[in-house]
Amino acid sequence: MLDKTQVERLEAEAVNSAKTRQPLYAARKKIFPKRASGNFRRFKWLVMAITLGIYYLTPWLRWDRGPFAPDQAVLLDVANRRFYFFFIEIWPQEFFYVAGLLVMAGVGLFLITSTVGRAWCGYACPQTVWVDLFLVVERAVEGDRNARMKLDAGPWTARKLMLRLSKHAVWLVIGAATGGAWIFYFADAPTLMGELFTGTAAPVAYITIAVLTATTYTFGGLMREQVCTYMCPWPRIQAAMLDENSLTVTYNDWRGEPRSRHAKKVQAIGQSVGDCVDCNACVAVCPMGIDIRDGQQLECITCALCIDACDGVMDKLGKERGLISYATLSDYNANMMLATAGGSSSINPSLVRTAVGTFSDQVAHFHIRKIFRPRTYVYMGLWSLIGLGLLYSLLTRDRLELNVLHDRNPQFVTLSDGSIRNGYTVKLLNMIPEPRTIVVTMEGLEGADMVVVGDDIPAGRSFAIPVEPDRLKTLKVFVRQPADQIHAPAQTFKFRVEDRASFESNEYTATFNAPEAPK
Ligand code: SF4
Ligand code: SF4
Protein backbone atom coordinates (compact mmCIF):
# COMPACT_ATOMS: atom_id res chain seq x y z
CA MET A 1 0.00 0.00 0.00
CA LEU A 2 1.24 3.47 -0.80
CA ASP A 3 0.89 6.23 1.72
CA LYS A 4 -0.41 9.68 0.70
CA THR A 5 3.05 11.06 -0.09
CA GLN A 6 4.04 8.25 -2.43
CA VAL A 7 3.31 8.28 -6.15
CA GLU A 8 2.28 5.09 -7.91
CA ARG A 9 4.54 4.08 -10.79
CA LEU A 10 2.58 2.67 -13.72
CA GLU A 11 3.77 0.15 -16.28
CA ALA A 12 3.20 2.15 -19.41
CA GLU A 13 5.22 3.15 -22.42
CA ALA A 14 4.46 5.55 -25.23
CA VAL A 15 3.70 3.77 -28.49
CA ASN A 16 6.32 5.94 -30.20
CA SER A 17 8.81 5.81 -27.36
CA ALA A 18 12.26 7.05 -28.36
CA LYS A 19 13.71 3.76 -27.13
CA THR A 20 11.73 1.62 -29.57
CA ARG A 21 10.78 4.10 -32.26
CA GLN A 22 11.30 2.87 -35.82
CA PRO A 23 12.07 5.44 -38.50
CA LEU A 24 9.09 5.95 -40.82
CA TYR A 25 11.42 6.24 -43.78
CA ALA A 26 13.52 3.31 -44.89
CA ALA A 27 16.20 4.01 -47.46
CA ARG A 28 15.79 2.03 -50.67
CA LYS A 29 18.08 -0.93 -51.07
CA LYS A 30 19.39 -1.04 -54.60
CA ILE A 31 18.38 -4.05 -56.65
CA PHE A 32 20.55 -5.44 -59.43
CA PRO A 33 18.44 -8.13 -61.09
CA LYS A 34 20.45 -10.81 -62.86
CA ARG A 35 19.51 -11.73 -66.40
CA ALA A 36 17.18 -14.73 -66.37
CA SER A 37 16.68 -17.23 -69.14
CA GLY A 38 14.00 -19.83 -69.63
CA ASN A 39 10.46 -20.31 -70.85
CA PHE A 40 8.89 -17.51 -68.83
CA ARG A 41 11.64 -15.08 -69.76
CA ARG A 42 11.09 -15.90 -73.44
CA PHE A 43 7.37 -15.42 -72.99
CA LYS A 44 8.01 -12.07 -71.33
CA TRP A 45 10.23 -11.00 -74.25
CA LEU A 46 7.39 -11.89 -76.58
CA VAL A 47 4.77 -9.96 -74.56
CA MET A 48 7.19 -7.03 -74.30
CA ALA A 49 7.75 -6.96 -78.07
CA ILE A 50 4.01 -7.16 -78.76
CA THR A 51 2.92 -4.53 -76.22
CA LEU A 52 5.69 -2.05 -77.05
CA GLY A 53 5.16 -2.70 -80.77
CA ILE A 54 1.45 -1.96 -80.42
CA TYR A 55 2.09 1.19 -78.42
CA TYR A 56 4.80 2.70 -80.63
CA LEU A 57 3.53 1.61 -84.05
CA THR A 58 -0.26 1.94 -83.82
CA PRO A 59 -0.35 5.71 -84.57
CA TRP A 60 1.47 5.00 -87.85
CA LEU A 61 -1.13 2.56 -89.14
CA ARG A 62 -3.28 4.02 -91.93
CA TRP A 63 -6.94 3.30 -92.66
CA ASP A 64 -8.65 4.68 -95.73
CA ARG A 65 -11.92 6.38 -94.76
CA GLY A 66 -12.25 8.37 -97.96
CA PRO A 67 -11.40 12.02 -98.60
CA PHE A 68 -13.58 13.43 -95.82
CA ALA A 69 -12.07 11.73 -92.76
CA PRO A 70 -8.55 11.22 -91.37
CA ASP A 71 -6.70 8.16 -92.59
CA GLN A 72 -5.08 7.31 -89.26
CA ALA A 73 -6.32 3.91 -88.06
CA VAL A 74 -6.46 4.89 -84.37
CA LEU A 75 -7.03 8.55 -83.68
CA LEU A 76 -8.46 10.54 -80.80
CA ASP A 77 -9.54 13.65 -82.68
CA VAL A 78 -10.18 15.88 -79.68
CA ALA A 79 -10.69 19.04 -81.75
CA ASN A 80 -13.55 17.48 -83.72
CA ARG A 81 -14.65 15.30 -80.83
CA ARG A 82 -14.30 12.01 -82.65
CA PHE A 83 -12.58 8.73 -81.84
CA TYR A 84 -11.51 6.65 -84.83
CA PHE A 85 -10.65 3.00 -84.37
CA PHE A 86 -10.11 1.34 -87.74
CA PHE A 87 -13.61 1.05 -89.28
CA ILE A 88 -15.36 2.33 -86.13
CA GLU A 89 -16.04 6.02 -85.60
CA ILE A 90 -17.25 7.03 -82.15
CA TRP A 91 -19.12 10.29 -81.61
CA PRO A 92 -19.21 12.02 -78.20
CA GLN A 93 -22.76 10.75 -77.53
CA GLU A 94 -21.47 7.22 -78.12
CA PHE A 95 -18.84 7.42 -75.42
CA PHE A 96 -20.60 4.59 -73.62
CA TYR A 97 -18.71 2.25 -75.98
CA VAL A 98 -15.44 3.43 -74.46
CA ALA A 99 -16.93 3.17 -70.96
CA GLY A 100 -18.13 -0.36 -71.81
CA LEU A 101 -14.66 -1.34 -73.00
CA LEU A 102 -13.15 -0.03 -69.76
CA VAL A 103 -15.66 -2.06 -67.74
CA MET A 104 -14.75 -5.11 -69.86
CA ALA A 105 -11.07 -4.45 -69.16
CA GLY A 106 -11.83 -4.28 -65.42
CA VAL A 107 -13.85 -7.52 -65.42
CA GLY A 108 -11.16 -9.14 -67.60
CA LEU A 109 -8.57 -8.16 -65.01
CA PHE A 110 -10.71 -9.78 -62.27
CA LEU A 111 -10.95 -12.93 -64.41
CA ILE A 112 -7.22 -13.09 -65.07
CA THR A 113 -6.36 -12.42 -61.42
CA SER A 114 -8.74 -15.08 -60.08
CA THR A 115 -7.20 -17.67 -62.41
CA VAL A 116 -3.51 -16.85 -62.86
CA GLY A 117 -2.98 -14.32 -60.08
CA ARG A 118 -1.14 -11.11 -60.88
CA ALA A 119 -0.35 -12.07 -64.48
CA TRP A 120 -1.18 -8.51 -65.51
CA CYS A 121 1.50 -7.17 -63.14
CA GLY A 122 4.09 -9.72 -64.18
CA TYR A 123 3.72 -9.55 -67.94
CA ALA A 124 1.62 -6.75 -69.40
CA CYS A 125 1.50 -3.81 -66.95
CA PRO A 126 3.21 -0.80 -68.57
CA GLN A 127 5.35 -0.34 -65.45
CA THR A 128 6.65 -3.91 -65.75
CA VAL A 129 7.21 -3.67 -69.50
CA TRP A 130 9.07 -0.37 -69.33
CA VAL A 131 11.17 -1.43 -66.33
CA ASP A 132 12.12 -4.53 -68.33
CA LEU A 133 13.10 -2.31 -71.24
CA PHE A 134 15.13 0.00 -69.00
CA LEU A 135 16.87 -3.05 -67.50
CA VAL A 136 17.79 -4.25 -71.00
CA VAL A 137 19.51 -0.90 -71.55
CA GLU A 138 21.18 -1.04 -68.14
CA ARG A 139 22.56 -4.52 -68.80
CA ALA A 140 23.71 -3.58 -72.29
CA VAL A 141 25.61 -0.54 -70.97
CA GLU A 142 26.85 -1.62 -67.55
CA GLY A 143 26.79 -5.42 -67.74
CA ASP A 144 24.92 -8.05 -65.77
CA ARG A 145 24.35 -8.13 -62.02
CA ASN A 146 27.91 -8.58 -60.75
CA ALA A 147 29.36 -5.97 -63.10
CA ARG A 148 26.66 -3.48 -62.13
CA MET A 149 27.14 -4.10 -58.42
CA LYS A 150 30.88 -3.64 -58.81
CA LEU A 151 30.43 -0.48 -60.80
CA ASP A 152 27.95 0.90 -58.29
CA ALA A 153 30.20 0.19 -55.33
CA GLY A 154 33.33 1.51 -57.07
CA PRO A 155 34.63 5.09 -57.03
CA TRP A 156 33.59 7.65 -59.63
CA THR A 157 35.97 7.24 -62.55
CA ALA A 158 35.79 8.51 -66.12
CA ARG A 159 34.55 5.08 -67.21
CA LYS A 160 31.80 4.99 -64.57
CA LEU A 161 30.75 8.51 -65.50
CA MET A 162 30.62 7.59 -69.20
CA LEU A 163 28.60 4.44 -68.55
CA ARG A 164 26.15 6.22 -66.27
CA LEU A 165 25.72 9.13 -68.70
CA SER A 166 25.15 6.72 -71.59
CA LYS A 167 22.59 4.73 -69.65
CA HIS A 168 20.62 7.78 -68.52
CA ALA A 169 20.79 9.29 -72.00
CA VAL A 170 19.25 6.16 -73.56
CA TRP A 171 16.62 6.08 -70.80
CA LEU A 172 15.72 9.68 -71.60
CA VAL A 173 15.46 8.86 -75.31
CA ILE A 174 13.08 5.99 -74.46
CA GLY A 175 11.09 8.37 -72.24
CA ALA A 176 10.88 10.94 -75.05
CA ALA A 177 9.84 8.24 -77.55
CA THR A 178 7.14 7.13 -75.12
CA GLY A 179 5.79 10.65 -74.75
CA GLY A 180 6.14 11.21 -78.48
CA ALA A 181 4.18 8.07 -79.31
CA TRP A 182 1.41 9.13 -76.93
CA ILE A 183 0.73 12.45 -78.63
CA PHE A 184 0.66 10.77 -82.05
CA TYR A 185 -2.62 9.19 -80.97
CA PHE A 186 -4.18 12.67 -80.87
CA ALA A 187 -3.16 14.04 -84.28
CA ASP A 188 -2.05 12.85 -87.69
CA ALA A 189 1.25 11.17 -86.76
CA PRO A 190 3.38 11.98 -89.87
CA THR A 191 2.23 15.62 -89.88
CA LEU A 192 2.82 16.02 -86.15
CA MET A 193 6.24 14.39 -86.42
CA GLY A 194 7.25 16.99 -89.00
CA GLU A 195 5.87 19.80 -86.86
CA LEU A 196 7.70 18.53 -83.78
CA PHE A 197 11.07 18.62 -85.49
CA THR A 198 10.48 21.99 -87.12
CA GLY A 199 9.31 23.54 -83.87
CA THR A 200 5.84 24.33 -85.23
CA ALA A 201 3.80 21.87 -83.15
CA ALA A 202 1.37 23.19 -80.53
CA PRO A 203 2.97 23.94 -77.12
CA VAL A 204 0.76 21.29 -75.50
CA ALA A 205 2.54 18.66 -77.62
CA TYR A 206 5.96 19.63 -76.26
CA ILE A 207 4.61 19.89 -72.69
CA THR A 208 3.03 16.41 -72.95
CA ILE A 209 6.25 14.91 -74.26
CA ALA A 210 8.23 16.59 -71.47
CA VAL A 211 5.86 15.33 -68.76
CA LEU A 212 5.78 11.78 -70.14
CA THR A 213 9.54 11.73 -70.64
CA ALA A 214 10.00 12.71 -67.00
CA THR A 215 7.45 10.20 -65.65
CA THR A 216 8.71 7.31 -67.82
CA TYR A 217 12.32 8.02 -66.87
CA THR A 218 11.48 8.38 -63.18
CA PHE A 219 9.09 5.42 -62.86
CA GLY A 220 10.92 3.05 -65.24
CA GLY A 221 14.52 3.99 -64.54
CA LEU A 222 14.75 5.43 -61.04
CA MET A 223 11.83 4.19 -58.97
CA ARG A 224 11.20 0.80 -60.61
CA GLU A 225 9.94 -1.69 -58.00
CA GLN A 226 8.99 1.11 -55.61
CA VAL A 227 6.10 2.08 -57.92
CA CYS A 228 4.64 -1.43 -57.54
CA THR A 229 5.30 -1.70 -53.83
CA TYR A 230 4.30 1.75 -52.60
CA MET A 231 2.29 3.57 -55.27
CA CYS A 232 0.14 1.03 -57.07
CA PRO A 233 -3.14 0.04 -55.37
CA TRP A 234 -3.44 -3.18 -57.35
CA PRO A 235 -1.36 -5.38 -54.98
CA ARG A 236 -3.82 -4.47 -52.21
CA ILE A 237 -6.94 -4.99 -54.32
CA GLN A 238 -5.87 -8.30 -55.80
CA ALA A 239 -6.05 -10.10 -52.46
CA ALA A 240 -9.85 -9.88 -52.68
CA MET A 241 -9.81 -11.65 -56.04
CA LEU A 242 -7.54 -14.55 -55.22
CA ASP A 243 -8.87 -17.75 -53.76
CA GLU A 244 -7.32 -21.09 -52.94
CA ASN A 245 -7.61 -22.19 -56.57
CA SER A 246 -5.85 -19.17 -58.07
CA LEU A 247 -2.44 -19.81 -59.55
CA THR A 248 0.41 -17.91 -57.95
CA VAL A 249 4.17 -18.22 -58.10
CA THR A 250 4.95 -20.52 -55.18
CA TYR A 251 8.06 -21.91 -53.56
CA ASN A 252 7.19 -25.55 -52.93
CA ASP A 253 8.89 -25.90 -49.59
CA TRP A 254 7.22 -29.29 -49.13
CA ARG A 255 9.92 -30.57 -51.52
CA GLY A 256 12.55 -27.87 -51.03
CA GLU A 257 13.05 -27.88 -47.26
CA PRO A 258 15.15 -28.37 -45.29
CA ARG A 259 17.36 -26.48 -47.68
CA SER A 260 21.08 -27.12 -47.66
CA ARG A 261 24.14 -25.92 -49.53
CA HIS A 262 25.93 -29.13 -48.64
CA ALA A 263 23.29 -31.74 -49.36
CA LYS A 264 25.69 -34.64 -49.72
CA LYS A 265 27.40 -33.96 -46.41
CA VAL A 266 24.11 -33.59 -44.61
CA GLN A 267 22.73 -36.77 -46.16
CA ALA A 268 25.92 -38.57 -45.23
CA ILE A 269 25.18 -37.97 -41.56
CA GLY A 270 21.69 -39.40 -42.00
CA GLN A 271 19.65 -36.20 -42.19
CA SER A 272 17.12 -35.65 -44.94
CA VAL A 273 17.44 -32.61 -47.20
CA GLY A 274 15.07 -30.96 -49.61
CA ASP A 275 15.74 -29.96 -53.19
CA CYS A 276 16.67 -26.34 -52.46
CA VAL A 277 20.44 -25.92 -52.49
CA ASP A 278 20.16 -22.36 -51.19
CA CYS A 279 21.96 -20.98 -54.23
CA ASN A 280 19.94 -17.73 -54.19
CA ALA A 281 19.57 -17.79 -57.98
CA CYS A 282 15.83 -17.09 -57.48
CA VAL A 283 16.63 -14.01 -55.39
CA ALA A 284 19.29 -12.70 -57.78
CA VAL A 285 16.93 -12.59 -60.78
CA CYS A 286 13.99 -11.09 -58.92
CA PRO A 287 13.27 -7.56 -60.19
CA MET A 288 11.50 -6.83 -56.89
CA GLY A 289 14.49 -7.96 -54.84
CA ILE A 290 12.52 -10.43 -52.74
CA ASP A 291 12.95 -14.07 -51.78
CA ILE A 292 9.96 -16.14 -52.87
CA ARG A 293 10.99 -18.77 -50.33
CA ASP A 294 9.65 -16.42 -47.65
CA GLY A 295 6.13 -17.10 -48.95
CA GLN A 296 3.57 -14.99 -50.78
CA GLN A 297 4.43 -11.32 -50.58
CA LEU A 298 2.74 -8.12 -51.62
CA GLU A 299 5.85 -7.18 -53.60
CA CYS A 300 5.76 -10.28 -55.82
CA ILE A 301 4.48 -9.32 -59.26
CA THR A 302 4.46 -12.99 -60.36
CA CYS A 303 6.83 -12.38 -63.23
CA ALA A 304 7.96 -16.02 -62.85
CA LEU A 305 11.63 -15.22 -63.45
CA CYS A 306 12.47 -17.03 -60.23
CA ILE A 307 10.82 -20.12 -61.75
CA ASP A 308 13.18 -19.90 -64.72
CA ALA A 309 16.20 -19.41 -62.45
CA CYS A 310 15.31 -22.32 -60.21
CA ASP A 311 14.41 -24.59 -63.13
CA GLY A 312 17.89 -23.92 -64.50
CA VAL A 313 19.39 -24.98 -61.16
CA MET A 314 17.21 -28.10 -60.99
CA ASP A 315 18.27 -29.02 -64.54
CA LYS A 316 21.92 -28.80 -63.51
CA LEU A 317 21.27 -30.95 -60.45
CA GLY A 318 19.29 -33.49 -62.46
CA LYS A 319 16.13 -32.92 -60.39
CA GLU A 320 12.55 -32.33 -61.50
CA ARG A 321 11.75 -28.77 -62.43
CA GLY A 322 9.11 -26.90 -60.46
CA LEU A 323 10.66 -26.35 -57.04
CA ILE A 324 9.33 -22.85 -57.65
CA SER A 325 6.23 -23.05 -59.82
CA TYR A 326 2.79 -21.69 -60.51
CA ALA A 327 0.64 -23.51 -57.94
CA THR A 328 -2.68 -23.10 -56.20
CA LEU A 329 -2.96 -22.72 -52.47
CA SER A 330 -5.14 -25.84 -52.26
CA ASP A 331 -2.50 -27.99 -54.00
CA TYR A 332 0.24 -26.44 -51.91
CA ASN A 333 -1.66 -27.12 -48.67
CA ALA A 334 -2.35 -30.71 -49.70
CA ASN A 335 1.33 -31.29 -50.44
CA MET A 336 2.38 -29.65 -47.19
CA MET A 337 0.07 -31.97 -45.28
CA LEU A 338 1.72 -34.87 -47.08
CA ALA A 339 5.25 -33.63 -46.36
CA THR A 340 4.51 -33.00 -42.68
CA ALA A 341 2.53 -36.19 -42.08
CA GLY A 342 -0.68 -34.23 -41.59
CA GLY A 343 1.01 -31.36 -39.80
CA SER A 344 2.45 -33.55 -37.05
CA SER A 345 6.13 -33.06 -37.96
CA SER A 346 8.43 -30.62 -39.68
CA ILE A 347 8.84 -30.97 -43.45
CA ASN A 348 10.24 -34.31 -44.43
CA PRO A 349 10.75 -34.31 -48.21
CA SER A 350 11.06 -38.09 -48.28
CA LEU A 351 7.33 -38.28 -47.45
CA VAL A 352 6.46 -36.84 -50.87
CA ARG A 353 8.73 -39.27 -52.73
CA THR A 354 8.74 -42.95 -53.49
CA ALA A 355 11.57 -45.31 -52.64
CA VAL A 356 13.15 -44.68 -56.05
CA GLY A 357 13.07 -40.92 -55.57
CA THR A 358 10.18 -40.00 -57.85
CA PHE A 359 7.22 -38.01 -56.58
CA SER A 360 4.52 -39.97 -54.79
CA ASP A 361 1.19 -40.38 -56.58
CA GLN A 362 -0.39 -38.47 -53.72
CA VAL A 363 1.40 -35.25 -54.65
CA ALA A 364 -1.20 -32.80 -55.93
CA HIS A 365 -0.62 -31.12 -59.29
CA PHE A 366 -2.50 -28.30 -60.94
CA HIS A 367 -5.30 -29.35 -63.25
CA ILE A 368 -6.81 -27.08 -65.86
CA ARG A 369 -10.33 -27.76 -64.56
CA LYS A 370 -9.48 -25.64 -61.50
CA ILE A 371 -9.79 -22.61 -63.73
CA PHE A 372 -13.45 -23.40 -64.29
CA ARG A 373 -15.20 -22.64 -61.04
CA PRO A 374 -18.22 -20.48 -60.03
CA ARG A 375 -16.22 -17.29 -59.59
CA THR A 376 -14.57 -17.53 -63.00
CA TYR A 377 -17.89 -18.51 -64.62
CA VAL A 378 -19.43 -15.32 -63.20
CA TYR A 379 -16.53 -13.18 -64.48
CA MET A 380 -16.54 -14.88 -67.89
CA GLY A 381 -20.33 -14.55 -68.16
CA LEU A 382 -20.28 -10.88 -67.21
CA TRP A 383 -17.41 -10.14 -69.58
CA SER A 384 -19.10 -11.93 -72.48
CA LEU A 385 -22.45 -10.29 -71.76
CA ILE A 386 -20.99 -6.78 -71.84
CA GLY A 387 -18.96 -7.63 -74.95
CA LEU A 388 -21.95 -9.05 -76.82
CA GLY A 389 -24.13 -6.12 -75.76
CA LEU A 390 -21.55 -3.64 -77.08
CA LEU A 391 -21.11 -5.60 -80.29
CA TYR A 392 -24.84 -5.78 -80.91
CA SER A 393 -25.21 -2.08 -80.22
CA LEU A 394 -22.27 -1.31 -82.54
CA LEU A 395 -23.61 -3.38 -85.40
CA THR A 396 -27.14 -1.97 -85.17
CA ARG A 397 -26.41 1.66 -84.35
CA ASP A 398 -27.88 4.48 -86.46
CA ARG A 399 -25.56 6.47 -88.67
CA LEU A 400 -28.33 8.83 -89.72
CA GLU A 401 -29.96 10.57 -86.79
CA LEU A 402 -32.91 12.91 -86.63
CA ASN A 403 -33.88 15.24 -83.85
CA VAL A 404 -36.83 17.65 -83.94
CA LEU A 405 -37.62 20.55 -81.61
CA HIS A 406 -41.07 22.14 -81.74
CA ASP A 407 -41.12 25.93 -81.41
CA ARG A 408 -42.44 26.77 -77.95
CA ASN A 409 -43.28 30.35 -78.45
CA PRO A 410 -45.50 30.74 -80.32
CA GLN A 411 -46.71 27.14 -80.49
CA PHE A 412 -48.72 27.96 -83.64
CA VAL A 413 -49.50 30.90 -85.85
CA THR A 414 -52.81 31.54 -87.64
CA LEU A 415 -52.10 32.74 -91.18
CA SER A 416 -54.25 35.23 -93.15
CA ASP A 417 -56.03 32.42 -95.02
CA GLY A 418 -56.97 30.77 -91.70
CA SER A 419 -54.47 27.92 -92.01
CA ILE A 420 -52.32 27.08 -88.99
CA ARG A 421 -48.55 27.05 -89.07
CA ASN A 422 -46.14 25.36 -86.61
CA GLY A 423 -42.37 25.86 -86.57
CA TYR A 424 -39.78 23.13 -85.98
CA THR A 425 -36.03 22.95 -85.72
CA VAL A 426 -35.00 19.81 -87.58
CA LYS A 427 -31.51 18.43 -86.92
CA LEU A 428 -30.07 15.94 -89.40
CA LEU A 429 -26.96 14.14 -88.24
CA ASN A 430 -24.87 12.47 -90.92
CA MET A 431 -22.55 10.21 -88.92
CA ILE A 432 -20.51 8.80 -91.81
CA PRO A 433 -17.49 10.47 -93.41
CA GLU A 434 -19.26 10.84 -96.79
CA PRO A 435 -21.64 13.47 -98.13
CA ARG A 436 -25.24 12.31 -98.36
CA THR A 437 -28.52 13.53 -99.83
CA ILE A 438 -31.19 13.10 -97.24
CA VAL A 439 -34.87 12.99 -98.18
CA VAL A 440 -37.13 14.48 -95.51
CA THR A 441 -40.77 13.44 -95.71
CA MET A 442 -43.89 14.21 -93.69
CA GLU A 443 -46.16 11.29 -92.82
CA GLY A 444 -49.70 11.96 -91.53
CA LEU A 445 -51.24 15.40 -90.94
CA GLU A 446 -53.62 15.44 -93.87
CA GLY A 447 -53.42 18.32 -96.33
CA ALA A 448 -50.36 19.81 -94.65
CA ASP A 449 -47.13 20.82 -96.36
CA MET A 450 -43.81 22.17 -95.21
CA VAL A 451 -41.28 24.77 -96.26
CA VAL A 452 -37.62 25.13 -95.30
CA VAL A 453 -36.86 28.64 -94.12
CA GLY A 454 -34.09 30.34 -96.11
CA ASP A 455 -34.01 27.70 -98.80
CA ASP A 456 -35.41 27.65 -102.33
CA ILE A 457 -37.11 24.35 -101.77
CA PRO A 458 -40.75 24.58 -102.90
CA ALA A 459 -43.48 23.85 -100.35
CA GLY A 460 -44.46 20.20 -100.31
CA ARG A 461 -44.57 17.07 -98.22
CA SER A 462 -41.06 15.94 -99.08
CA PHE A 463 -37.76 17.52 -99.98
CA ALA A 464 -34.18 16.39 -100.51
CA ILE A 465 -31.26 18.17 -98.92
CA PRO A 466 -27.50 17.57 -99.04
CA VAL A 467 -25.66 17.01 -95.74
CA GLU A 468 -21.89 17.27 -95.45
CA PRO A 469 -19.84 14.29 -94.25
CA ASP A 470 -19.67 13.83 -90.49
CA ARG A 471 -21.76 16.92 -89.92
CA LEU A 472 -24.94 18.09 -88.27
CA LYS A 473 -27.36 20.04 -90.48
CA THR A 474 -29.92 22.21 -88.76
CA LEU A 475 -33.06 23.29 -90.67
CA LYS A 476 -35.86 25.62 -89.73
CA VAL A 477 -39.05 24.02 -91.05
CA PHE A 478 -42.57 25.51 -91.09
CA VAL A 479 -45.47 23.05 -91.35
CA ARG A 480 -48.80 24.49 -92.52
CA GLN A 481 -52.22 22.82 -92.44
CA PRO A 482 -55.39 24.29 -93.94
CA ALA A 483 -58.04 25.17 -91.37
CA ASP A 484 -60.63 22.77 -92.81
CA GLN A 485 -58.26 19.80 -92.27
CA ILE A 486 -57.65 20.51 -88.60
CA HIS A 487 -59.74 18.29 -86.38
CA ALA A 488 -57.90 18.41 -83.03
CA PRO A 489 -55.82 20.92 -81.07
CA ALA A 490 -52.86 18.48 -80.99
CA GLN A 491 -52.22 16.04 -83.82
CA THR A 492 -49.19 13.80 -84.23
CA PHE A 493 -47.34 13.21 -87.45
CA LYS A 494 -43.93 11.92 -88.44
CA PHE A 495 -40.81 13.43 -89.91
CA ARG A 496 -39.08 10.68 -91.80
CA VAL A 497 -35.50 10.96 -93.10
CA GLU A 498 -33.99 8.58 -95.59
CA ASP A 499 -30.74 8.09 -97.46
CA ARG A 500 -31.92 6.38 -100.62
CA ALA A 501 -28.37 5.34 -101.53
CA SER A 502 -27.76 3.34 -98.36
CA PHE A 503 -31.44 2.68 -97.49
CA GLU A 504 -30.79 4.05 -94.04
CA SER A 505 -33.70 5.85 -92.46
CA ASN A 506 -34.96 7.30 -89.22
CA GLU A 507 -38.13 8.98 -88.05
CA TYR A 508 -39.43 11.28 -85.36
CA THR A 509 -42.98 11.66 -84.13
CA ALA A 510 -43.86 15.36 -83.74
CA THR A 511 -46.95 17.21 -82.55
CA PHE A 512 -48.86 19.80 -84.56
CA ASN A 513 -50.66 22.30 -82.36
CA ALA A 514 -53.72 24.32 -83.28
CA PRO A 515 -56.20 26.51 -81.37
CA GLU A 516 -59.12 24.79 -79.63
CA ALA A 517 -61.68 25.96 -82.15
CA PRO A 518 -59.99 26.96 -85.39
CA LYS A 519 -61.87 29.43 -87.49
S1 SF4 B 1 9.47 -13.55 -56.40
FE1 SF4 B 1 9.63 -14.47 -58.44
S2 SF4 B 1 7.66 -14.07 -59.40
FE2 SF4 B 1 7.80 -12.74 -57.61
S3 SF4 B 1 8.60 -10.83 -58.43
FE3 SF4 B 1 10.36 -12.00 -57.73
S4 SF4 B 1 11.04 -13.14 -59.53
FE4 SF4 B 1 9.01 -12.38 -59.99
S1 SF4 C 1 16.92 -21.05 -57.11
FE1 SF4 C 1 15.87 -22.86 -56.36
S2 SF4 C 1 17.49 -24.03 -55.42
FE2 SF4 C 1 18.31 -21.97 -55.63
S3 SF4 C 1 17.78 -20.97 -53.71
FE3 SF4 C 1 16.09 -20.54 -55.12
S4 SF4 C 1 14.65 -22.18 -54.64
FE4 SF4 C 1 16.58 -22.83 -53.80
Alpha carbon gap, first and last residue: 111 Å
SSE string, helices as H and strands as E: HEEEHHHHHHHHHEHHHHEHHEEEEEEEEE
Task: Give the overall form.
Answer: elongated
**Number of beta-strand segments:** 14
Bound molecules: iron/sulfur cluster
Radius of gyration: 35 Å
**Oligomer kind:** single chain
- Main sheet properties: 5 strands, antiparallel
Tell me what portion of residues adopts beta-strand conformation.
15-25%
Helices and strands, with pairings:
Layout: H1 39-57, E1 74-77, E2 82-85, E3 88-90, H2 96-116, H3 119-124, H4 126-142, H5 145-153, H6 158-183, H7 189-198, H8 203-223, H9 225-231, H10 234-238, E4 247-251, H11 253-256, H12 263-268, H13 281-285, H14 305-317, E5 324-328, H15 329-339, H16 374-396, E6 400-406, E7 413-414, E8 420-430, E9 436-443, E10 449-452, E11 462-467, E12 471-481, E13 490-499, E14 504-513
Helix pairs in contact: 2-16, 4-6, 4-8, 6-8
Protein name: Cytochrome c oxidase accessory protein CcoG
Keywords: 4Fe-4S, Electron transport, Iron, Iron-sulfur, Membrane, Metal-binding, Transmembrane, Transmembrane helix, Transport
Pfam families: Fer4_18, Fer4_5, FixG_C
